[in-house]
């Protein structure tokens, strides 16, 4: 058996080898430090303060700090607002920094700046080329179809939506008093497969069918949680719906005349939206904002939607859920169109703002009001518990608690 390597090396050679390792280590350490210092000195975003950790440029740190943002995005955005009061700050996102603003001048500036691209911004945040396909950005056919043909045809579409509600909702919320008791458990695997196979394919089909309204369903869930948590508003909403439907029917005009329900949904979106941010943009060239904030080409900038929606300068008692807040605002002469669910502004950002605001918001608004109207007219609604299910946060996303439960009891049929 050969002797160990250390016994075959002279003490002098062993010392030289260890000295070489130390030299390599210190060379790498000094080189890395110099690299960080040089990157920091020439970092184009160095003048913008950082929230959530030191502003260390390079490849590794933003990704590490981004994990903190994924877990604590709402808290970090709140800290940034309280510390910098509307001035720009940056937070770490996966592979990069994103610049965050919330004051009205910045919002007006970024919503329509020709060199701040919404297409590139959304593609980066939503990874559309991977989740939907590359043609979603290159081919704008669907945007034009929604903005023009669908929006102009809402009055034609609404009766079909009402008919679908009358057929679909009783299927999802069956009346337990109408029909036989559920039979005993099936005893054979063959029978189980026979029963479950159609359900599996039905759900698969619905998943494909509802892929386009992935934002409507959580919005509806938020609204149902809010309604069940504040049952005192159910009867005023129901009275309005029954009165309007009796006069105008299930039409676009009828949905437009539901001021209280429109206000309820708008307030639900303000307090419990889908995202913490809005107006995602990517700088296609170097851009300097009105206050001197410099955005080098490739920088991502967003609006802090959560801060805007909870700012007492924008809303009286912004921390309170006030369902008829916007209905009261619309009663002021000349203000009736400014506070609808579909109207965007610097103070209300769920659909974005400016010429690039969500083109499908008009259909989404009608759809949400139709579903809520049908449920309120045909069902008693209550929360299974005493507290509203807490929202779940993951990075910039806000999701209603999937484990929350809302109870429905069939009322005397008064549907369409």
TrEMBL record:
<comment type="similarity">
    <text>Belongs to the cytochrome P450 family.</text>
</comment>
<dbReference type="GO" id="GO:0005506">
    <property type="term" value="F:iron ion binding"/>
</dbReference>
<dbReference type="Pfam" id="PF00067">
    <property type="entry name" value="p450"/>
</dbReference>
<dbReference type="InterPro" id="IPR036396">
    <property type="entry name" value="Cyt_P450_sf"/>
</dbReference>
<dbReference type="GO" id="GO:0016705">
    <property type="term" value="F:oxidoreductase activity, acting on paired donors, with incorporation or reduction of molecular oxygen"/>
</dbReference>
<dbReference type="GO" id="GO:0020037">
    <property type="term" value="F:heme binding"/>
</dbReference>
<keyword id="KW-0349">Heme</keyword>
<keyword id="KW-0479">Metal-binding</keyword>
<feature type="binding site" description="axial binding residue">
    <location>
        <position position="358"/>
    </location>
    <ligand>
        <name>heme</name>
    </ligand>
</feature>
<keyword id="KW-0408">Iron</keyword>
<dbReference type="InterPro" id="IPR001128">
    <property type="entry name" value="Cyt_P450"/>
</dbReference>
<dbReference type="InterPro" id="IPR002403">
    <property type="entry name" value="Cyt_P450_E_grp-IV"/>
</dbReference>
<dbReference type="InterPro" id="IPR017972">
    <property type="entry name" value="Cyt_P450_CS"/>
</dbReference>
<dbReference type="GO" id="GO:0004497">
    <property type="term" value="F:monooxygenase activity"/>
</dbReference>
<protein>
    <submittedName>
        <fullName>Cytochrome P450</fullName>
    </submittedName>
</protein>
<keyword id="KW-0503">Monooxygenase</keyword>
<keyword id="KW-0560">Oxidoreductase</keyword>
């Amino acid at each position: 058996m050969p002797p160990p390597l250390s016994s075959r090396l002279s003490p002098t050679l062993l010392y030289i080898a260890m000295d070489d390792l130390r030299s390599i280590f210190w060379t790498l350490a000094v080189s890395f430090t110099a690299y960080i210092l040089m990157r920091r000195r020439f970092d184009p975003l160095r003048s913008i303060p950082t929230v959530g950790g030191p502003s260390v440029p390079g490849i590794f740190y933003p990704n590490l700090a981004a994990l903190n943002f994924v877990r604590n995005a709402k808290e970090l955005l709140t800290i940034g607002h309280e510390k910098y009061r509307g001035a720009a700050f940056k937070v770490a996102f996966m592979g990069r920094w994103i610049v965050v603003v919330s004051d009205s001048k910045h919002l007006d500036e970024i919503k329509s700046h020709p060199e701040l691209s919404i297409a590139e911004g959304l593609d980066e945040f939503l990874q559309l080329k991977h989740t939907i396909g590359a043609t979603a950005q290159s081919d704008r056919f669907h945007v034009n179809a929604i903005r023009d043909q669908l929006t102009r045809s809402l009055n034609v579409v609404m009766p079909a939506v009402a008919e679908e509600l009358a057929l679909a909702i009783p299927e999802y919320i069956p009346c337990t008093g109408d029909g036989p008791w559920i039979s005993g458990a099936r005893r054979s695997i063959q029978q189980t497969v026979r029963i479950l196979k159609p359900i599996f394919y039905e759900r698969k089909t619905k998943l494909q069918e509802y892929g386009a309204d992935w934002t409507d369903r959580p919005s509806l869930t938020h609204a149902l949680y809010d309604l069940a948590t504040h049952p005192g508003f159910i009867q005023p909403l129901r009275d309005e719906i029954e009165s309007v439907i009796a006069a105008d029917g299930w039409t676009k005009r009828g949905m437009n005349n539901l001021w209280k329900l429109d206000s309820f949904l708008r307030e639900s979106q303000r307090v419990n939206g889908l995202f913490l941010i809005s107006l995602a943009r990517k700088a296609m060239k170097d851009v300097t904002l009105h206050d001197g904030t410099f955005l080098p080409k490739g920088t991502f900038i967003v609006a802090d939607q959560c801060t805007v929606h909870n700012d007492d300068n924008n809303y009286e008692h912004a921390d309170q859920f006030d369902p008829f807040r916007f209905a009261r605002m619309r009663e002021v002469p000349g203000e009736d169109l400014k506070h609808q669910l579909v109207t965007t502004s610097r103070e209300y950002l769920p659909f974005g703002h400016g010429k690039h605001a969500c083109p499908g918001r008009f259909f989404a608004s009608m759809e949400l009001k139709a579903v809520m109207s049908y449920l309120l007219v045909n069902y008693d609604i209550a929360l299974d518990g005493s507290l509203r299910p807490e929202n779940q946060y993951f990075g910039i996303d806000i999701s209603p608690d999937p484990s929350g439960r809302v109870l429905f009891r069939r009322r005397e049929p008064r549907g369409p």
